[in-house]
């Protein structure tokens, strides 16, 4: 869609002066220890004050696990290591025999708990891998992520050494707990030590494992509940001020974290400046938030906000837009843009209107990136921002990472000022601004529920085909087709009626497509497939005969949840169309 005159006036106000100054300031400020994170929040607050933009500074206590040190000792040698956040602290060391598992190279950063995905067929059953792993320290290529850590622990492993792909060691996290834990989450706190080593050292350790060696892992962590600051700007709309768009990103980082996420913090700051100055042109309000606890709290800052303001978000938030790793060097492609189906067209159009020749592909958001609002049911788009064209990444010999515009400085000490690019940052700031305007400044909310329903039908068909005749998803398919028919009647209704219906439909269908847990609880931090309560249909042929009846029970319950949600969404659409 063409850029309107009103949108153009906003876009013309975007400048690099304030955001680049923030990037430069943060490039000198490590932001992962609790006191340093709060100091960075004060910089954000002081910058907003200097701009004349009002804000609130919340200061909740959130649960953090901050890596201090780690090492691996084996064969008379000591190897440098980093523990991911939430690793079990073992300052006195844990010693056990080593065992090597062969990772699937395509799943190096996967959050999937499926054995075939993680190991590429080299391991065929849980019994086989449990016999290999129990009582041993696993050493394998990849990152010490939550899905893998939880599996190694379930299999009785004594620890995990993740062999990173390059010469640098990447920080990360290894807990499946999303945000600060409640009582039900606590049993999932990792009970094994996890460390990462670089590839040259990892090759030595994997060979030691092949030769029957043993190793000692030592990890030291700072853990507890810490007061952490959360700056939030509210820019009031002029027509529907109670309703709002939430735009957000994390300001804590590993070391100085320029590409992840000082550039995102700068983008949010420029949005706050431009939108505050042009607030008379906003129909709905815009909230802009900077989160702590992303890196060392597994999204504890955004999760606190989701919990504390759940009722306001439920009633009035029309969309959430995540801002992570924009403005990085060489990042001129948008082939890894994240959006749920109802929001994909908004993201695509905003990118296309700013960068007409861009390569754009929208993908399902993973269970990551401060997407702490799926359980409420917020339409969502963007996560990681622009990235390197794939051919350039391959030419540089870079392995796949989860940020920094595909620069392998991601989550290392090398994520410094040279990772940021002024021109790319200007482009990405304009994309974010345009996308915000197209939700906050328009009369009709632009979410496409037809696209969501059509994706549901594709997912249902895929699961049913994979079930090899063991699952009948006809009721789910018919309910989705009925919902599509009900949507047709909405087209001629007034925007107020359609907006109200859209909000209600979002609260029903987004949790259905993205969560297993009930609303207002947070799913574990590993991959959630589309329509997760129906996904067991595709797994039935692979289940042992002894488990298939239980699988059928799970599917029956999951399809009941699906049918109830589709019936409610259909009723919403029919009522609005009447």
From TrEMBL:
Keywords: Carboxypeptidase, Endoplasmic reticulum, Glycoprotein, Golgi apparatus, Hydrolase, Lysosome, Metal-binding, Metalloprotease, Protease, Secreted, Signal, Zinc, Zymogen
All residue ranges annotated as the Peptidase M28 domain in the record: 232-425
Gene3D superfamilies linked to this entry: 3.50.30.30, Zn peptidases (3.40.630.10)
Cellular location(s): Endoplasmic reticulum; Golgi apparatus; Lysosome; Secreted
InterPro entries in alphabetical order: CPQ, Peptidase_M28
Keyword Ribonucleoprotein belongs to the record: no
Key word Transmembrane helix present: no
Subunit comment: Homodimer. The monomeric form is inactive while the homodimer is active.
Protein name: Carboxypeptidase Q
Organism: Roseomonas elaeocarpi
């Amino acid at each position: 869609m063409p850029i309107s005159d009103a949108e153009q006036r906003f876009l013309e106000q975007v400048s690099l002066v304030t955001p680049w100054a923030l990037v430069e300031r943060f490039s000198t400020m490590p932001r992962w220890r609790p006191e340093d994170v709060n100091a960075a929040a004060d910089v954000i607050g002081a910058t907003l004050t200097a701009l004349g933009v009002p804000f609130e500074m919340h200061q909740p206590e959130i649960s953090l696990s901050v890596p201090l040190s780690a090492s691996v000792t084996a064969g008379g040698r000591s190897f440098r290591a980093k523990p991911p956040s939430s690793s079990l602290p073992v300052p006195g060391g844990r010693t056990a025999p080593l065992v090597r598992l062969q990772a699937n190279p395509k799943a190096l950063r996967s959050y999937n708990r499926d054995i075939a995905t993680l190991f590429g067929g080299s391991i065929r059953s849980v019994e086989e891998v449990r016999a290999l792993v129990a009582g041993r320290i696993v050493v394998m290529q990849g990152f010490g992520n939550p899905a893998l850590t939880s599996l190694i622990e379930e299999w009785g492993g004594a620890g995990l050494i993740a062999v990173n792909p390059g010469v640098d060691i990447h920080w990360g996290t290894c807990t499946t707990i999303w945000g600060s834990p409640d009582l039900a989450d606590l049993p999932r706190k990792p009970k094994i030590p996890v460390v990462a080593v670089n590839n040259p050292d990892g090759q030595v350790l994997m060979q030691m494992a092949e030769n029957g060696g043993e190793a000692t892992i030592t990890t030291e962590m700072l853990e507890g509940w810490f007061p952490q600051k959360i700056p939030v700007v509210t820019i009031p709309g002029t027509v529907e001020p109670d309703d709002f768009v939430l735009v957000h990103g994390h300001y804590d980082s590993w070391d100085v974290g320029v590409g992840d996420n000082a550039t995102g913090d700068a983008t949010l700051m420029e949005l706050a400046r431009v939108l505050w100055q042009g607030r008379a042109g906003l129909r709905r309000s815009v909230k802009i938030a900077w989160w702590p606890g992303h890196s060392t709290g597994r999204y504890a800052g955004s999760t606190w906000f989701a919990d504390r303001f759940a009722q306001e978000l439920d009633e009035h938030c029309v969309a959430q837009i995540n801002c992570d790793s924009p403005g990085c060097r060489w990042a001129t492609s948008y082939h890894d843009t994240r959006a749920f189906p109802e929001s994909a067209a908004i993201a695509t159009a905003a990118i296309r209107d700013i960068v007409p020749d861009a390569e754009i592909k929208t993908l399902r958001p993973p269970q990551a990136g401060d997407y702490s609002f799926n359980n409420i049911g917020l339409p969502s788009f963007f996560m990681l921002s622009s990235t390197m064209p794939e051919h350039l990444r391959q030419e540089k010999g870079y392995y796949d990472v989860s940020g920094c515009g595909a620069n392998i400085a991601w989550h290392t000490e090398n994520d410094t000022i040279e990772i940021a690019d002024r021109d790319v940052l200007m482009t990405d700031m304009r994309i974010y601004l345009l996308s915000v305007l197209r939700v906050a400044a328009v009369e009709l909310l632009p979410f496409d529920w037809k696209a969501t329903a059509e994706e549901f039908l594709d997912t249902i068909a895929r699961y049913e085909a994979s079930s090899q005749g063991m699952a009948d998803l006809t009721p789910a398919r018919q309910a989705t087709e009925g919902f599509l028919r009900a949507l047709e009647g909405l087209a001629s209704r007034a925007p107020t009626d359609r907006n109200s219906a859209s909000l209600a439909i979002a609260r029903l269908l987004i949790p259905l497509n993205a969560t297993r847990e009930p609303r207002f609880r947070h799913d574990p931090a590993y991959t959630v497939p589309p329509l997760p309560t129906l996904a067991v249909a595709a797994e039935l042929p692979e289940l042992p005969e002894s488990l298939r009846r239980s699988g059928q029970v799970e599917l029956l319950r999951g399809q009941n949840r699906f049918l109830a949600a589709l019936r409610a969404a259909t009723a919403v659409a029919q009522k609005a169309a009447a």
